[in-house]
C-alpha cells in the first residue's frame, strides 16, 4: 500500500512537470498581473546585481566555461547588471513612467494613432528575446498625453519577463488609466526568439495580439480606421 502511494505521487510529479513543459512551449500565460512576490523589492538593486552575478557565474561554471578567460571574466556582472538595470527594469514600480496629461486646447476629439513603436521584451518561459512593433491608438476625452510617454509605457511593460498577450493588455490598461478614457487600442506584432532559434525553429512567423476597449471594442468603424492607419485592415 505504502509503495503504491509513493508510486502514485511520483507519477503526479512527473505529469505536472510534463504539463509545465507544455505550458511553457505553448506560451500560455496564467495571469494579467506579472506574477511577483510580495517581497520582490525588499532587496535593493545593488544587492540583486551582486547575487545574480554570483548565481550566473555558477551557471557558467556548471556549463564548463573557463571564467579565468579574459573574455568571459566580466560576463556574470554584465548579465546581472543588464537584468536589473535594463532588460528587466520594468519589474520595479519605481521605474514606471509618470504620465503627464496636457489639456487638448484644439479640442481634438479624433483618433490619435502612434504606430511602429519598436519594443524588446523577453519570453518568461525561456528568457530569450521577443521583439517587434507596437501600434497604439486612443480617442482623446479632452486630454492628450505626450507621444514619448506612450513610447515609455510600451518600453516599461516590455522590460519584464513576459507573454505577449499579457504585455498587450498591460499596456492597454495602463493607457486607459493614464488617459482617463476607455477608448484605447493596442496591437503588437512580434517575433519570438524561442520559436525561431529553438523548438520548432520557425524563423518567419510573427505573432499578433490585440487589445480593444471602449469604442474600439464596440464601434467597428473606429476599429477599422485604426487598422487602416497601421495597414492591417481586412
Ligand atoms: Zn518562449
TrEMBL record:
InterPro entries the UniProt entry points to: GTP-CH-I_C/QueF, GTP-CH-I_N, GTP_CycHdrlase_I, GTP_CycHdrlase_I_CS, GTP_CycHdrlase_I_dom
Keyword Metal-binding listed: yes
Binding site for Zn(2+): 123, 126, 194
Pathway recorded for this protein: Cofactor biosynthesis; 7,8-dihydroneopterin triphosphate biosynthesis; 7,8-dihydroneopterin triphosphate from GTP: step 1/1
Enzyme class, broadest EC rank: hydrolase
Single Gene Ontology MF annotation: GTP cyclohydrolase I activity
Subunit structure and binding partners: Homopolymer.
Record protein name field: GTP cyclohydrolase 1
Organism encoding this protein: Algoriphagus namhaensis
Amino acid at each position: 500500500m505504502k509503495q503504491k502511494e509513493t508510486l502514485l505521487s511520483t507519477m503526479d510529479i512527473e505529469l505536472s512537470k510534463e504539463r509545465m513543459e507544455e505550458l511553457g512551449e505553448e506560451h500560455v500565460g496564467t495571469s494579467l498581473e506579472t506574477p511577483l512576490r510580495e517581497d520582490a523589492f525588499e532587496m535593493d538593486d545593488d544587492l540583486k546585481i551582486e547575487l545574480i552575478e554570483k548565481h550566473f557565474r555558477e551557471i557558467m561554471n556548471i556549463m564548463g566555461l573557463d571564467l579565468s578567460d579574459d573574455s568571459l571574466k566580466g560576463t556574470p556582472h554584465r548579465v546581472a547588471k543588464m537584468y536589473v538595470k535594463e532588460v528587466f527594469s520594468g519589474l520595479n514600480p519605481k521605474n514606471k513612467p509618470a504620465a503627464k496629461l496636457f489639456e487638448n486646447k484644439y479640442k481634438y476629439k479624433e483618433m490619435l494613432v502612434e504606430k511602429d513603436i519598436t519594443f524588446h521584451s523577453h519570453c518568461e518561459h525561456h528568457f530569450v528575446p521577443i521583439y517587434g512593433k507596437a501600434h497604439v491608438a486612443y480617442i482623446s476625452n479632452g486630454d492628450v498625453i505626450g507621444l514619448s510617454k506612450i513610447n515609455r509605457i510600451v518600453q516599461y511593460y516590455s522590460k519584464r519577463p513576459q507573454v505577449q498577450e499579457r504585455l498587450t493588455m498591460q499596456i492597454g490598461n495602463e493607457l486607459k488609466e493614464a488617459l482617463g478614457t476607455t477608448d484605447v487600442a493596442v496591437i503588437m506584432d512580434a517575433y519570438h526568439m524561442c520559436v525561431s532559434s529553438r523548438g520548432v525553429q520557425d524563423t518567419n512567423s510573427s505573432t499578433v495580439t490585440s487589445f480593444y476597449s471602449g469604442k474600439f471594442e464596440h464601434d467597428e468603424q473606429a476599429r477599422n480606421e485604426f487598422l487602416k492607419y497601421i495597414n492591417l485592415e481586412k
